[in-house]
Amino acid sequence: MITIAAVMFCVIFAVVLRSFQVGVWEHMVDDIVANNFGYLQVHQKGFWGEQSLDLSMDEGALPVAQWQEVDGVRSVVRRLESFSLVSTGQSNRGSLVLGIEPEFELPGLQLVDQIVSGSVFEPGSDQVVVSEGLAEFLKVGVGDSLLFLSQGYRGASAYGQFMVSGIAKISNPELNKQLVLMPLQTAQWMYNGMGLLTTAVIDLEPTADHKEVKAELLPMMGEELELLEWEELFPELIQTIEADMAGGQIFITILYFIISFVLLGTVIMMVSEREREFGILVSIGMRKSKLAVVTVLENLILTLGGAIVGMALVKPVQFYFKYNPIDLSGQMKEAIEQFDFEPKLYTTTSFIINLNHGAIVFVIGILVSSYAVWKIMKLEPVKSMRS
Predict the structure, then answer these.
(1) 77 and 203 in one domain?
(2) What is the crossing angle of helices 2-29 and 235-273, to 10°?
């Protein structure tokens, strides 16, 4: 029971730790990529590096219909994005301005569930939706006006005055501090870019593999367009995930070293206490190899039993924290928000994590059982019966 409990708690602790780590990153990628930026984006070559409106695309020349015929493509989302100084007369801030069509947007920018006050703007109207963090900084509310001053297409002056129709809470903390959303046609007019787009997001079906879709779309891009997947759009996010995962692996490796010594201690005790019994069995004709197999099987049953119980007991914990994340507060919340992450801890419900860690513990059980095999194979029956 002690051995089974030790293995069980090891599996539970390892799975919970890994589930939180993977779950946080899964949620973050889903929030940043799937709901806001998309797994695949089309730009004029060089735009993503320079972020210049001069590298905009002519929306009439894009083969959108041809793209939508590719398996896995649900729709093509049109955007015009640039930067602007946003002012109320009393305070101002540099902001990201995104011209969108909410009815055709990705879930995070459809604004249906994000609006905390006011309403979504009408297509072509002189109204904007401001992110909650930016609205708090500028001290504006629904019905107030904002002044925009920037540089438009080919150096033209870009300016305008727009009324705030709504305030939206964007889940991404960094976007929530600086995002202004306006109708696509209004953004094109303000930036002197009628008929131009900076970004075309390839919206994928839920079951589609973005790498396979990219491979089919690439021949359609021509020489002037570039198709980037999210790993290329956000390489710093990939580096952060890899660094965090490596740190988690080190911690779990230490945990498995501990459980290895616990299991080894159990095997040593089991062999030493049964040495006289083993000597008697061998002396009356039992083969050492058969005795070793029985001993190894006994140890593996204990290890496998603990692993299975641990994998079963931890599953409800994974589901609970998947849909009821832990809200961080205080200094930890502030520290996480500085890295533009949502201060919540989610778990993943993937059974692969449970299976992987259960299998690792099982392999450890096989390895430590080699001590019992070694002791039995070098056993001297007469000497062991006298001990």
Answers:
(1) yes
(2) 170
Residue 372 has phi, psi (to 5 degrees) of -65, -40
The CA-CA-CA angle for residues 86, 155, 128, to 5°, reads: 30
Q: Which of 197, 222, 247 is the last residue of a domain?
A: 222
DSSP H/E element including 134: helix 132-138
The token pair that represents 134 in the structure block: 């930016």
259 with 217, same domain: the answer is no
Q: How far is CA 148 from CA 88, 89, 189, 284, in A?
A: 9, 11, 13, 95
Q: Tell me, yes or no, whether 173 and 300 share the same domain.
A: no
Same domain for 92 and 211, yes or no, is: yes
The span from the CA of 263 to the CA of 250, in Å, is 20
CB 313 within 8 A of CB 12: yes
Q: Does 187 lie in the same domain as 80?
A: yes
232 located within any domain: no
Report the domain count for the chain.
2
The tens place of each residue's pLDDT in the chain, 387 residues long, gives 877 887 888 888 888 888 888 888 887 777 778 777 889 999 999 998 888 999 999 998 899 999 999 999 999 999 999 999 999 978 899 999 999 998 899 887 888 888 999 999 988 899 999 999 999 999 999 999 999 999 999 889 999 999 999 999 887 777 888 999 999 999 999 999 999 999 999 999 988 888 999 999 999 988 889 999 988 888 877 787 788 778 788 888 888 888 788 888 878 887 888 888 888 888 888 888 888 888 888 888 888 888 889 889 999 998 998 888 887 766 666 656 555 566 778 888 888 888 888 888 888 888 888 888 888 888 777 777 666
> Domain of 200?
46-222
Inside any domain, residue 229: no
Are 329 and 357 in the same domain? yes
Same-domain check for residues 271 and 365: yes
Cα–Cα distance for residue pair 340/36, rounded to 1 Å: 14
